[in-house]
Amino acid sequence: MDFSLTRQQEMLINMVSEFAETELAPKALELDEKGEFPFHEVKRVAEQGLVGIVTSKEYGGSDMGHLARVIAIEEISKVYPPLGFFLQVGPIGMYILETMGTDEQKQKYLPPLCKGEKIMSTAVTEAAGGSEPQAMQSTAVADGDDYIVNGRKVYISFAEAADIVCFVAKTDDKFNAFIVEKGTKGFEITRRESHNGLRSIPVNEFALTDCRIPRANLVGEEGKGLIAGLNGIAVIGRTGVAGVGLGIAQGCYEAALKFARERNLYGKPIAGLQAIQFMLVDMNVEIEAARFIAYKAGWLLDQGKGPREAGADIAKAKLVTCELANRVAFNAVRILGGAGTTPEYHVIRRLRDATELLAAAGTQEIMKVIIGGSITR
């Protein structure tokens, strides 16, 4: 296995890092405090080719691959994790469309999504079916050239900001995936959750009440909707979360290291104190190890491995990076002492954001179930 980065990927790191430092760093705190969806910043990352980074050039994407996507999300998330999280969630539906949608659906939706002209959310989770999606109760009843949909989705990232939502509902004993556009009669955002972290990314509940969806908005074959949703969450969602987790950890480590070098105690920088050094060493080594695991997941997908073949490696990436982000962020707050709990040092903000990753794209316990199944079968 050769994990050396290509020249294109190294250039991507430099480009995204510069963009994050110049355009995001100066206003990250303001964006977090406002808690509004960052439409302008989404448009800007789309202009950099990052929204459609795994989408084919035929549909307006940059087609740089899954490893490149993890790298880009990591660099964005070092500075402003909510935007990295958008890049984690937004392309899930785009992946489902490209792998399972009709030619008409791809041509209609993917180019404006890649350009940031439209925003897409994906909805599988229900109150009765989070870690058990087969228990979902939303229904889609065929009615001529339409489906009539009734149901409720919960904990859906930025549904209120989306122009298009890809959702899964049950038709008889089959699960189907559909597209619903903003403004469709019977589709209503009913709630915004109050979340501790990732404040710029609204988390919504929405209802579908006698919502008439044209058969042309069915994504993929009948009965393949749940597979489409779960594959999108695994391939795009979990690798994206891994990138966000890496970025949060790296950003907190760099902030803690800088502070430790500059903060004097007993006449010398606290970086010289063994207790502080040991925490910094743990951060440094664990980030490097987690990066290897996360990059490997993206690399496997780029080698043509599917969600079944690479599923355990993807779950490992999500598991270790989310635990890492929370641990490193917490220890960064400890190193900074009183300054660590103040907004201007940014580590407490990143700690809040890190907690939101634990359940994103599947809980840590579900990741262990996936990994456990792969090593015991």
How would you characterize this protein structure?
The protein has 3 domains: 7-114, Orthogonal Bundle (Butyryl-Coa Dehydrogenase, subunit A, domain 1), CATH 1.10.540.10; 120-223, Butyryl-CoA Dehydrogenase, subunit A, domain 2 (Beta Barrel), CATH 2.40.110.10; 226-376, Butyryl-CoA Dehydrogenase, subunit A, domain 3. The relative contact order is 0.13. It has 377 residues and is α+β, with helices and mostly antiparallel strands. It is globular. Helix content is 53%, strand content 16%. The mean pLDDT is 96. The longest helix has 38 residues, at 225-262. The chain is built from 11 helices and 10 strands. A hairpin with a 2-residue loop joins strand 4 (164-171) and strand 5 (174-181).
Sum this structure up briefly:
The chain is α+β, with helices and mostly antiparallel strands. The chain has helices at residues 7-24, 28-34, 39-47, 66-79, 81-100, 103-114, 225-262, 274-302, 307-336, 347-357, 364-376; strands at residues 120-123, 139-143, 146-157, 164-171, 174-181, 187-192, 203-214, 218-219, 264-265, 268-269. The chain folds into three domains: 7-114, Butyryl-Coa Dehydrogenase, subunit A, domain 1 (Orthogonal Bundle), CATH 1.10.540.10; 120-223, Butyryl-CoA Dehydrogenase, subunit A, domain 2 (Beta Barrel), CATH 2.40.110.10; 226-376, Butyryl-CoA Dehydrogenase, subunit A, domain 3.
Salient structural properties:
377 residues; alpha+beta; Butyryl-Coa Dehydrogenase, subunit A, domain 1; Butyryl-CoA Dehydrogenase, subunit A, domain 2; Butyryl-CoA Dehydrogenase, subunit A, domain 3; four-stranded mixed beta sheet; four-stranded antiparallel beta sheet; 11 helices; 10 strands; 53% helix; 16% strand; globular
